[in-house]
Each structure stands twice: as structure tokens, then as C-alpha cells.
Design a protein that fits this description.
Helix content is about 40%, strand content about 5%. With about 280 residues, it is of the alpha+beta class. It has two domains: about 45-135 and about 255-275, 3-Layer(aba) Sandwich (Glutaredoxin); about 135-255, Glutathione S-transferase Yfyf (Class Pi), Chain A, domain 2, CATH 1.20.1050. It has a four-stranded mixed beta sheet, with helices on one face. InterPro entries: Glutathione-S-Trfase_C-like, Glutathione-S-Trfase_C_sf, Glutathione_S-Trfase, Glutathione_S-Trfase_N, Thioredoxin-like_sf.
């Protein structure tokens, strides 16, 4: 396709393998496993199957924050699921998440294992399980911002990120459309954070944990190398907030879990005591 107007949709769409450029193999129009492979199971209460994408980082930051707060029941085994290699379509992973997306988690602390998928649902489950990181006085606002992120991120990741960074062709219409929406979302955050230290006033919460790996990383130019293009420095309140969270030890540890690096792939060193970690800033 050489110009924006040269494509005429067929009467019936047919899937063409590898037609989506970089990362094309992470998507397909059918669900289910492509191969048999049992999931690995460790000995800690929480079993996490993920990769250090923004959605994956949400959960590892949450778990590291829980450990910092002293919750021994938040100890976890982290297993890398390399989505670039199609490991999310293994039968053991699909048994946990039939949608074949990371992150997925199993809580094996009770009599019956609890399977969880969708990063927002995992954050909410953990916050309720340990009764923390949802401020009682601002619970409704916290959940509103959590679901704002869940609903907004597809425009940032699947829309802007795909067409700006990964699509095989640069299509002005697509980039312009999603850029406009991403900048609108940044403006929403910037205006809100002008009068709030965190998303829920003075209370650090799962709303911050959910939003930072996407929008915090974006304004710190750690996502899509798009900081200059989006003029992210102009969103001063978002930059201030993002920099504040970046200083938290749990955030720093969370972004390292399940990086797709050879020496870090698979299970991380065991964590036995929450006291092994310094308190968060």
C-alpha cells in the first residue's frame, strides 16, 4: 500500500500470516493453544506469568509494593512468557488466560487455586486481598482512574504505539488520529495532577500503579521513543508525577521483573522475607 486511499476492503476479510509488521505473531483471529506446554509452578503463594510490557509491569510493581509493605503472602514466582515467541499460546498459559495475553496469575495460597487475567483485575484482586492501596475515602475515584487506564491504554499502545513505532508503513492518518487522542489523554492527566500529588490526592494507589507504566514511562521517554514527537515535556504535572514514582524502590524492582534478557529470563531469585527490601519512598 503506497498511499492512505489505495486500500479497498474485501467483502470478506481473510487472515494473512505475518501481515502486521513487527510483533505480528502476537495476534491472530482465533483463540486457543497452538502447542502443548505445561505451565511452570513454583513454591510461593503467587504464580506470575508475564513479560515486562507496560501491562506486565503494572502487576510486578504491585507485588513489589506489597512486599515492601510487609505482606509475606505476596511472595511470588515470576515466569517469563515471551510473547514475541508465541509462548502465550502454550496450553498451560491458555489454561490460566484463555485470552492469551500477559499478564496472568494464579493465587495458590488457598484450598483452591484462583486464576486471574487482565492486569486491572489483578491489581484490584491484590488490593482487596491485602486490603491496601485503595484509599477508603477515595475508593470510587481510585477505581474510576483504574478503569480510565484500562479503557485508554489501547489508544496509546495498540493505536499510537503500533502505528508510530511498529507498523510496517507510516500512515499519516493513523498516526495523526491516535496522536491526537494520546495528547488529549495526557492533557486529562496533566490537569488533574496540577492539584493532586497522586491520582487520588495524597494517597498512592493502584490507580498510580496502573497508569505509570504507560503514561509515566511515555513522558519519561521510555516508551516508543516518542517523547519529542508528543512534546511530553510540556505536560509538566505528569512529568513531575512520573518522576516521583520512578524514585520508588518497588517501581524500580518491578520494571526489572520478566525482562526479556537472557540472564533474567525465567524465575527471579527467591524472595522469602519482605524485610529484605527497603521501604518505599
Amino acid at each position: 500500500m503506497n498511499d492512505d486511499n489505495s486500500y479497498t476492503p474485501p467483502k470478506v476479510w481473510r487472515w494473512q500470516n505475518k501481515n502486521g509488521g513487527e510483533w505480528a505473531n502476537i495476534n491472530r483471529p482465533i483463540s486457543g493453544a497452538t502447542h502443548q506446554k505445561a505451565r511452570l509452578i513454583g513454591k510461593h503463594p503467587i504464580q506470575l506469568y508475564s513479560m515486562a510490557t507496560p501491562n506486565g509491569v503494572k502487576v510486578t510493581i504491585m507485588l513489589e509494593e506489597l512486599l515492601t509493605l510487609g505482606f509475606d503472602g505476596a511472595e511470588y514466582d515470576a515466569f517469563l512468557v515471551d510473547i514475541s515467541q508465541g509462548e502465550q499460546f502454550a496450553s498451560g498459559f491458555v489454561d490460566v488466560n484463555p485470552n492469551s495475553k500477559i499478564p496472568a496469575m494464579v493465587d495458590q495460597s488457598g484450598e483452591t487455586d484462583v486464576r486471574l487475567f487482565e492486569s486491572g483485575a489483578i491489581l484490584l484482586y491484590l488490593a482487596e486481598k491485602f486490603n491496601c492501596l485503595i484509599p477508603n475515602e477515595k475508593r470510587a475515584e481510585c477505581l474510576s482512574w483504574l478503569f480510565w487506564q484500562v479503557g485508554s491504554a489501547p489508544y496509546l499502545g495498540g493505536g499510537f504505539g503500533h502505528f508510530y513505532r511498529y507498523a510496517p508503513e507510516k500512515i499519516a492518518y493513523c498516526i495523526d488520529r491516535f496522536t491526537m487522542e494520546v495528547k488529549r489523554q495526557l492533557d486529562v492527566l496533566d490537569k488533574h495532577l496540577a492539584n493532586n500529588l497522586y491520582l487520588c490526592g495524597d494517597s498512592y494507589s493502584i490507580a498510580d500503579i496502573a497508569i505509570w507504566p504507560w503514561y509515566g514511562a511515555l513522558v519519561l521517554n521510555q516508551l516508543y521513543d516518542a517523547g519529542q514527537f508528543l512534546d511530553t515535556d510540556s505536560y509538566k504535572n505528569v512529568v513531575r508525577w512520573a518522576s516521583l514514582l520512578e524514585k520508588r524502590p518497588a517501581v524500580n524492582r518491578g520494571v526489572m521483573v520478566n525482562k526479556n534478557w537472557g540472564e533474567l529470563s525465567g524465575q527471579l531469585p527467591e524472595r522469602h522475607n519482605a524485610s529484605d527490601f527497603p521501604p518505599s519512598a
